[in-house]
């Protein structure tokens, strides 16, 4: 694989929330990058900070976010507010898990697709309408004229998610951020939407940041995988490396815990316990309470991401001095 | 097996009538469950698979009479449960229980879990007041909940633990049949595995019979001996797990199986992607309900509803082309 | 996936003692004391209660002790808030009036909460005919304008010559009669939405008896909202009582209430020249009602943070 330019670079991103119990480090020192035309999947269980990471990139988090975001080499922090808005509206687009709640129930589908076209582009109403119908057809819905005039409640979840994708694509973004786009959908519909995302991405050489908890989805679409646990990145690597030889005990656990079609083991592998409460975590490997390999150092010091074979992993098991 | 099955469902139909509005003179019933027949043997795990609108939850709730049915019979050990008085049904409830999908909304937030687990025992007079706490602790331990949690409220538990509470509540009266309605789909992968294993353990220890409702074919494969595939309220295919997963006959089953993403990037495969959307259950297609999305539709499929017939021993399919 | 790891050994559970009971009300209290305005309201209310119920024991005067020679004295060291037209000590009367007003407010609240709560729960749970009857009665009562209705009832009361010392109880009943329909509606709608929740379906699946479903499952979920609305309704009841008494239709002299004390402001001379007669009871009503509202809002936020803005 030749080195491609990175579209989005996330460096030392942190998002902390103050709650009644204390400070929650939802995202803590997260770095990764998304290259041109590449699909990066952020995987993790609920509460691991994967959604907050995506929202922080889009500037949708209501707390101060630390760290640097570079989009096509430009530091987003240095842009003026207007430029920032343009980048986030035009070049970066986002789709969410619940298409129903992201669409306005009192506006027609057509009006909602046309809106960004009219705001961000010098389209006339007629042109915008033409383009909107084109977009509806692009995401694989027939009867575009009819859909254009209908309201969100008249469409099924799968259709709405397609509409959301159409809206996201309306400004020809360089990058699409998708937060659990298929979680609310049925399996057969999920297959349709994943197929659509993949073809669209290939056709447009668009980069994609996909947030998901489903390893099946990751294996289907990802090029590069970022595994998160309790607000931290614990392992990164290409999809083939991660699935063929997971390094971190948590990644291993996730892979073995999932029942797989055609593979009937008597008992499923389980990771004991649950994700720790993110409030007042002491410096340690946050996974140590659930880890079968936990050593003394895991309870005292937080491991950092280090290169191991071709993956990066944050685990004391792979630190030379500890091993020796 | 010579004895009669534990659960026998015959021609079950459940129609929901929509309230007719002023302008709509003819209220059309939604056929949530449309003529479904199957049996569950003792000690078996029967998997009911389907997408949204397939009526799988409605069947599950009918089976323990959480609502009334429109037509057909449901027998538990030969007893027609929808023909029993409220009082007789109440005592039958100790034998058949339900595990809900959402462990957050199915537990009363203002009741300590010890009390939540004790009340069915006390209300049915199964255990005396001075013994009840020990019994509750015992069930909690069986379900993998440390018994020192007995005085806590639901909100103090994580999703996986709450689902354990839900299972413990269903288990506490020592029923022999449990309907589990998508019990793992709200849980994270690592927790899902814990709960699936718990279901298996309980079955081995207590010889439980389950009706396991799920949309996740890989979970069903892991847990069930017999599987029924539902689509828009009708059974499309029904057979043993091995036959279904190795030799699916109905085009819908095939598509469903191929739509499941496999967590192995080397096996990115050509899958059968069904066109179109799931039709509205209030207005299902005529003929074979699946014809609007089926890749092999023929003329007969548009007109005649296929019979649910046994194509080989123990393998039932509703399709003209098989 | 060559080396599938073994199922890990059971993790050592953290040692936790069984008796570690947590209580929902403890949490409510912790959230409550974080809300400053509500705590201020609560403290002031406590002071008003102490003032009204314990204060009179420290007063050298009695409410009935008329002394025409001492009439219309401005505030002095002997009479801190002066005296009224019969020479009675205004401070003492203010305290005793507080007893009456607070009792009427609380009593009316308890009555309307019991009627409204019980009827609301029954209507919401059983629906059908029970619901129809209860709600139609409530509708009728709610369509009648409250204040004129109270005036008419008070006029009837005067006609029947109800003795002054009993009038306070009649006022309570009157206030609760117009107060319960709103409460019943609120509770009914709560119960209607609660009974559709999955945990109520779970009680069906468990085959629990109706009594247990109502008392153990529905009631505890209704109590928080009941407490909040009940608290807020005390303020309203105190205000209504004052209005009635001001017009001489509620609690009548010689029994003092804050409302009938303000009646002094009726005369222009008293209003302009003797402000000590009407300012203290006015301030008392004002402060009490504000404090009750602050307390109620604080309780609402503390009991159920999601209820905000309802």
Radius of gyration of chain B over all CA atoms, rounded: 21 Å
Biggest β-sheet description of chain B: 8 strands, mixed
Helix content of chain B: 25-40%
Largest beta sheet: strand ordering of chain A:
6-7-8-3-9-10-12-11
- SS summary, helix count of chain B: 10
Helix content of chain A: 25-40%
**Top-tier CATH class of the domain at 6-91 and 171-248 in chain A:** Alpha Beta
Q: State the distance separating the first and last CA atoms of chain A.
A: 35 Å
> Helices and strands of chain B: which structural class?
alpha/beta
Proportion in β-strands of chain A: 15-25%
Distance between the termini of chain B: 28 Å
CATH topology of the domain at 6-91 and 171-248 in chain A: Rossmann fold
**Estimated radius of gyration of chain A:** 21 Å
- What is the 3D form of chain A? globular
General shape of chain B: globular
Total beta strand runs of chain A? 12
Please state roughly what percent of the residues of chain B sit in beta strands, choosing from under 5%, 5-15%, 15-25%, 25-35%, 35-45% or over 45%.
15-25%
What is the fold's blueprint, element by element?
The complex is a heterotrimer of chains A (324), B (322) and C (310).
Chain A: E1 6-18, E2 23-35, E3 39-43, H1 50-57, E4 65-71, E5 74-75, H2 81-91, E6 92-95, H3 99-102, H4 109-120, H5 125-138, H6 144-149, H7 157-169, E7 175-179, H8 187-204, E8 207-212, H9 215-221, E9 224-229, E10 232-238, H10 239-244, H11 249-257, H12 296-300, E11 306-308, E12 311-313, H13 320-323
Parallel strand pairs in A: 3-8, 3-9, 6-7, 7-8
Antiparallel strand pairs in A: 1-2, 1-4, 4-5, 9-10, 10-12, 11-12
Helix pairs in contact in A: 4-5, 4-7, 5-7, 7-8
Chain B: E1 7-17, E2 29-40, E3 45-49, H1 56-63, E4 71-76, E5 79-80, H2 86-92, E6 96-99, H3 113-123, H4 129-142, H5 159-171, E7 177-181, H6 189-206, E8 209-214, H7 217-223, E9 226-231, E10 234-240, H8 241-246, H9 251-259, H10 299-303, E11 309-312, E12 315-317
Parallel strand pairs in B: 3-8, 3-9, 6-7, 7-8
Antiparallel strand pairs in B: 1-2, 1-4, 4-5, 9-10, 10-12, 11-12
Chain C: H1 24-32, H2 36-53, H3 90-126, H4 128-143, H5 146-159, H6 164-195, H7 198-206, H8 210-246, H9 258-262, H10 268-273, H11 279-303
Helix pairs in contact in C: 1-11, 2-3, 2-11, 3-4, 3-6, 3-8, 4-6, 5-6, 6-8, 8-11
């Amino acid at each position: 694989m030749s080195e491609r330019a990175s579209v989005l670079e996330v460096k030392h991103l942190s998002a902390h929330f103050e709650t009644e119990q204390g400070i929650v480090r939802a995202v803590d020192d997260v770095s990764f990058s998304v290259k041109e035309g590449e699909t990066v999947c952020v995987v993790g269980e609920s509460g691991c900070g994967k959604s907050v990471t995506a929202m922080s990139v889009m500037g949708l988090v209501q707390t101060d976010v630390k760290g640097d975001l570079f989009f096509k080499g430009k530091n987003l922090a240095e842009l003026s507010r207007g430029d920032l808005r343009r980048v986030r509206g035009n070049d970066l687009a986002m789709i969410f898990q619940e298409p129903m709640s992201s669409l306005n129930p009192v506006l027609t589908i057509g009006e909602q697709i046309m809106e960004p076209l009219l705001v961000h582009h010098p389209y006339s109403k007629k042109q915008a309408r033409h383009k909107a119908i084109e977009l509806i057809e692009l995401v694989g819905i027939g009867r575009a004229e009819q859909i254009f005039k209908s309201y969100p409640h008249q469409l099924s979840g799968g259709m709405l998610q397609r509409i959301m994708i159409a809206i996201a694509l309306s400004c020809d973004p360089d990058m699409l951020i998708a937060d659990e786009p298929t979680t609310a959908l049925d399996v057969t519909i999920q297959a349709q939407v994943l197929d659509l995302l993949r073809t669209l991405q290939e056709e447009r050489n668009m980069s994609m940041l996909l947030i998901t908890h489903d390893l099946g989805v990751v294996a289907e679409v990802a090029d590069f995988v970022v595994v998160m646990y309790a607000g931290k990145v614990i392992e990164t690597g290409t999809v083939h490396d991660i699935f063929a030889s997971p390094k971190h005990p948590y990644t291993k656990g996730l892979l073995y815990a999932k029942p797989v079609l055609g593979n009937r083991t008597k008992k499923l592998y389980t990771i004991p316990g649950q994700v720790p409460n993110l409030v007042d975590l002491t410096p340690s490997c946050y996974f140590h309470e659930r880890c079968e390999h936990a050593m003394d150092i895991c309870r005292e010091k937080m491991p950092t991401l280090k290169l191991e074979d071709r993956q990066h992993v944050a685990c004391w098991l792979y630190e030379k001095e500890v091993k020796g | 097996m010579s004895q009669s099955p534990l659960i026998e469902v015959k021609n079950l139909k459940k129609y929901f009538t929509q309230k007719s509005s002023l302008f709509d003179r003819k209220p059309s019933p939604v056929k949530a469950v449309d003529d479904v027949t199957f049996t569950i043997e003792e000690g078996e795990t029967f998997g009911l698979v389907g997408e949204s609108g397939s009526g799988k939850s409605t069947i599950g709730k009918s089976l323990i009479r959480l609502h009334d049915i429109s037509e057909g019979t449901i027998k538990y050990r030969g007893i027609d449960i929808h023909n029993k008085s409220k009082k007789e049904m109440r005592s039958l409830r100790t034998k058949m229980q339900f595990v809900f999908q959402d462990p957050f909304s199915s537990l009363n937030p203002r009741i300590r879990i010890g009390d939540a687990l004790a009340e069915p025992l006390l209300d049915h007079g199964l255990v005396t007041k001075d013994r009840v706490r020990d019994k509750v602790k015992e069930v909690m331990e069986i379900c993998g909940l440390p018994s020192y949690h007995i005085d806590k409220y639901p909100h103090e538990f994580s999703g996986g633990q709450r689902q354990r509470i839900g299972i413990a509540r269903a288990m506490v009266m020592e029923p022999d049949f449990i309907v589990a309605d998508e019990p793992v789909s709200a849980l994270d992968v690592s927790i899902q595995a814990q709960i699936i294993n718990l279901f298996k353990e309980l079955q081995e220890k207590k010889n439980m019979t389950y009706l396991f409702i799920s949309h996740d074919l890989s979970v069903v494969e892991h847990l069930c001996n017999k599987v029924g595939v539902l689509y828009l309220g009708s059974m499309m295919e029904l057979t043993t797990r091995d036959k279904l997963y190795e030799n699916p006959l109905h085009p819908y089953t095939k598509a469903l199986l191929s739509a499941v993403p496999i967590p192995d990037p080397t096996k990115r495969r050509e899958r059968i992607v069904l066109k179109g959307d799931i039709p509205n259950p209030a207005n299902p297609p005529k003929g074979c309900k699946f014809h609007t999305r089926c890749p092999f539709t023929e003329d007969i499929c548009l007109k005649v509803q296929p019979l649910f017939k046994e194509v080989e021993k123990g393998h039932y399919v509703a399709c003209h082309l098989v | 996936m060559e080396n599938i790891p073994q199922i890990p050994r059971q993790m050592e559970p953290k040692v936790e003692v069984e008796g570690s009971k947590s209580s929902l009300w403890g949490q409510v209290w912790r959230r409550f004391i974080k809300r400053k305005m509500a705590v201020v309201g609560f403290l002031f209310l406590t002071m008003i209660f102490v003032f009204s119920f314990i204060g009179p024991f420290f007063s050298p005067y009695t409410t009935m002790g008329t002394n025409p020679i001492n009439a219309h004295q401005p505030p002095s060291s002997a009479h801190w808030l002066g005296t009224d037209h019969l020479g009675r000590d205004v401070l003492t009367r203010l305290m005793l009036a507080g007893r009456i007003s607070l009792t009427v407010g609380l009593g009316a609240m308890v009555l309307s909460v019991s009627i409204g709560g019980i009827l609301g729960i029954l209507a919401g749970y059983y629906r059908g005919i029970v619901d129809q009857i209860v709600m139609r009665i409530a509708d009728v009562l709610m369509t009648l304008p409250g204040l004129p209705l109270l005036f008419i009832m008070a006029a009837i009361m005067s006609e029947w010559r109800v003795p002054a010392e009993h009038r306070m109880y009649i006022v309570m009943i009157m206030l609760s009669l117009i107060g319960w329909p709103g409460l019943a509606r609120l509770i009914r709608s709560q119960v209607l939405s609660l009974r559709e929740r999955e945990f109520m379906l779970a009680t069906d699946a468990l085959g629990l008896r109706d009594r247990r479903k109502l008392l153990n499952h529905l009631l505890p979920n209704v109590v928080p909202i009941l407490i909040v609305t009940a608290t807020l309704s005390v303020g309203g009841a105190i205000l209504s009582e004052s209005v009635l008494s001001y017009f001489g239709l509620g609690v009548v002299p010689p029994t003092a209430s804050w409302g009938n004390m303000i009646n002094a402001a009726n005369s222009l001379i008293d209003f302009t020249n003797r402000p000590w007669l009407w300012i203290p009871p006015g301030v008392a009503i004002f402060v009490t009602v504000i404090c009750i509202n602050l307390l109620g809002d604080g309780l609402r936020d503390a009991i159920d943070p999601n209820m905000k803005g309802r």
